[in-house]
Amino acid sequence: MAVTDTAAPDRETDSDTAARWVSLAGVVFRTVLSVAVTILGLLALTFFIGRLLPLDPVLAILGDDASQEAYDRMYVSLGLDQPLWRQFLTYIVNSLTFDFGTSLTSGRPVTEDILRVFPATLELATVAMILGTGLGIPLGVTAAANRDTWIDQTVRVVSLIGYSAPIFWLGLLGLTVFYAGLGWVGAPGRIDIVYQYDLQPVTGLYLVDSLLAGRWDIFQDVFSRIVLPASILAYGAMAYIARMTRSFMLEQFGQEYITAARAKGATRRQVIWSHAFPNIAVQLVTVVALSYAFLLEGAVLTETVFAWPGFGRYLTTALLRADMNAVLGCTLIVGLIFIALNLASDIFYRVFDPRTR
Amino acid sequence: MTDLPGSPPQSTLRGWLEAPGATSPGQARAQAAWRSWQRLVANKAALAGLIVLLALIFLAVFGPALTPYDPMAQNLSERLLPPSGAHPFGTDDLGRDIMTRILYGARITLMMAALVAVIAGPIGLIVGATAGYLGGWTDIVAMRVVDIFLSFPSLILALAFVAALGPGIENAVIAIALSAWPPIARLARAEALTVRKSDYIAAARIQGASRFRLILRHVMPVCLPSVVIRITLNMAGIILTAAGLGFLGLGAQPPSPEWGAMLASGRQFMLTSWWLAAIPGAAIMVVSLAFNLLGDGLRDVLDPRDD
After folding, report:
1. What is the dihedral sign for C-alpha B32, B37, B38, B43?
2. pTM (2 decimals)?
3. Of residues B151, B154, B157, nearest to A339 (C-beta)
C-alpha cells in the first residue's frame, strides 16, 4: 500500500544479503531439526500404542490353537524376544523405509494396501476441497462485508450446523434423500461394477482416468457417485474456511488503509477484493491446507457410509479386525501428511508474506 | 460503604453486584463474574445454547421418570412403528421406544463428555502450567510431546488408541481424553508464561514457597478459567468423536442406547424407517450445536478483541 508505506526505502547491500542468507540457513536448519524430532516422536507414539495392545500379536497371526513350537518360532521371527529399545530401532528403520509389515486381513504389505486405496481418498478429498474452498471463501467475505446483517447471521448458522452435524448422519440423510428419494445422484460406491475392470488406472483418480480414456459414460457414472460424498465432506471444510475468512476480513476492515481507500473514493467491490482480500490470501492458504488435512479425518466416517473403497474404510476395517500393522501404518501416514501440510503452509507463509521476514 | 448518589442501593444482591466500586476482593470478583454473565445472556445464541444444555441435563437426570418404557425391553409386536402419540419418535427394529432410548442415551453422552473433561482437563492443566512455569528443557520436551499429539487429527488418534485398548465405552473415553489434552496443555502453558515473571510469584517464592506449591497454588489457578472455556469449546468436538466411535462400532456397544451406536444399528432401516437413524443423529447435532453456541458466546464474552 503506497499510502501507508512511508518508511525510507531499504537500500540492499551485500552484507544485508549475506546476513539474510545466514538467517535463512538458520531457519531451514531449525525447521529440519524440528520436523525430524516430530517424526521421531510420531514413531515413538505409534510404537507405544502398538505395545499397549492387550492382544497377543503372535496369537493374532496364528490363531488361538497354535502349537507352542509354532508360537515360539513366530515370537522370534516377529522380533519380540529382542530388548524393547532394539525393537524400537527396528521399527524406526522399517517405518522410515515405509515398511509397516504385513496386513493380517489382506495378507499383503500394508504399504501396498495403502497405495492401492489412497487415490480413492485423494480424489474424494480433492473434490471436497475444491467445493469447500470455492464456496467457503466467498461466503466468508460476503459475511464480513455485510457484518451483523441477516446475510452474516445466515452464514453463521450455516457454518455452525456444518461444525455440529455428525458427518456420517448427514451422509445417511443425503443418501436417503438424493439417491433413494430423488434419484439425483449415483449409488454408494466409487464406480459401477460394469466399468470396474473397463477403466485403465493411470493416475488412480477415476475422474481423470475416465477423461484420459475418453470414456464420457464412465466419467458420468463416477461423477454422479462422487458428488454427494464430496459435498457432505466439503460442508465441514466450507464451514471452517468461511468462518476464518470472515474473521480475517474483519481484521483487515478495521485497519486504516481501508479507511484511506474508502476516502479516496474506491468502490466497495474494489475495497473488498483489491485492497483487503490480497492481504488475507496468504493466511487463507494456511487455513485451506489445514482443512485439507482434516478432510482425511472426515473421510474415515464418510467412506464408511458411502462404501467408498478408500483409506478411511481400509482403516476402519483394520480397526474392527484388530489388524494393528495396518492401523499403525495408516496412523503414521496421516501424521506424516499432517506434518507435510503444516510444513508446506509454513514455507508458503514465509516465502509469500513479506511481514514474516 | 458509602453509596454514590444515583447508584442503586447496596442492600439488594443486584445492587451489591452492580455497585460502581467494590469494597472487598470477593465483591470485585463477583462483580466481574456478573458482568460476564450479563454479556453472555445478552448474546441470544449463547443463551439458546445454555438453555438447550440445561434442558438436556434435566432430561438426562429425570428422563427415566418421564417415560413409561424400558430402554432395553424388546417388544417385537411393536417393531418399526413410525412416530405417533404413544411413541413420539417411533420404535426401533426390536420394538424399543426410541424416545426412551434417546433419553437414556443423553446420560451416556453427557457422562462420556464429562469424564473426558475430568481426565483431559487436569492432565492438560498440569502439563501446561508446569511446562510454562519451569521453562527450559521441561518446556521444550513437553511442548514437543504436545506437537506430536497435535500432528494427528483427534479422531484418528482416538481410533488408534481404541484399536490398541479394544472397543468399549471406557476405552473410548480414555482414547478421546488422550487425544483431547494437548490443546489444553498448550493453552495452559501460554497462560503460565504470562505470570511466571510477575511480582506476586516472585513474592511467594521469596517467602519460601516450593516449586510444587507455586505451580499448584499460584500458577494453576490463573490458568484455570481459560482451560474451562477451552474445554467447553472442545466439548462439541468431543461429543462428535464419541458418536463417531460409537457409529464405527468402537465405542459403546449395542444394545447400549448410545446415540452413535443407535444410529449405526438403525442405518440398515434408513430407506424404510428413517426415524431409526435420523433421530439419534439429530440428537447428536442438537447437543453439539448447543455446545458450539455456548462456546462461541463464551469466547465473545471473555475475548472482546473481536469487537
Report:
1. positive
2. 0.85
3. B151
